[in-house]
């Protein structure tokens, strides 16, 4: 029996090391992007997300500045995810900031925005991956001391609507980040964003928002 003990130990270690990791892909824009820390102090929440996850979770961040549901597909960035995603993987999908843009290569009307999200969901499910919709982070826009966040228009609401209609997991980042900004107030909340920029976060802001996403993943039982 003693001669079998080393074999049992070896098999236990082998099985422990070979357990599959939870894989999370991110499709999004500049607010989630990974930045070169030697070039800028701007950080995206996707860049800081691994800090709040265990070693059992692997993050693949495909978020890119200036991308909308329209341009992310047109530039084949979505295809890149589809080529790598596997059964049981999670895809976090967060757009809206650039879909409202007047630039034709970015702009997606509300109906097109909704259809684009539905198509993302359908294709993710065809790969047996699990789509997770995220509403966009709040835009720190104050008028007369009141947070208005009016540049995102109806798009966060469309995401919530699609999540309900398509029975898709949802992390309402817009509401959660809005609550945080309202709690901090106009002046105090500036420390989370780049100077003179009400859209893009610095490291502190990215940390706060990555923590919000991580908590959302935990609440959805995607991570422990």
> How many strands, what sense, and barrel or not for the largest sheet?
5 strands, parallel
Category from helices, strands and their pairing: alpha/beta
H/I helix tally: 8
Q: What's the rounded overall pLDDT mean? A: 93
Provide the spatial order of strands within the biggest beta sheet.
Answer: 2-1-3-4-7
Over all CA atoms, what is the radius of gyration? 19 Å
Tell me the β content: 5-15%
Shape by Cα distribution: globular
Distance between the termini: 37 Å
Helix residue percentage: 25-40%
Q: What multimeric state do the chains show?
A: single chain
Low-confidence stretches: 10-16
* Annotation, overall tally of beta strands: 7
Q: What is the chain-wise order of helices and strands?
A: HEHEHHEHEEEHEHH
Question: What descriptors fit this protein?
Answer:
224 residues; alpha/beta; 39% helix
Task: Give a structural overview.
This protein is of the alpha/beta class. It is built from eight helices and seven strands; from the N terminus they run αβαβααβαβββαβαα. The strands form two sheets. A five-stranded parallel sheet has the order 2-1-3-4-7, with helices on both faces. Strands 5-6 form a two-stranded antiparallel ribbon. It is globular. Residues 10-16 have low confidence and may be disordered.
Give a topology summary.
Layout: H1 5-17, E1 22-27, H2 45-48, E2 57-61, H3 69-74, H4 77-84, E3 90-93, H5 110-126, E4 130-134, E5 142-143, E6 146-147, H6 155-165, E7 169-171, H7 173-184, H8 203-219
Parallel strand pairs: 1-2, 1-3, 3-4, 4-7
Antiparallel strand pairs: 5-6
Helix pairs in contact: 5-6
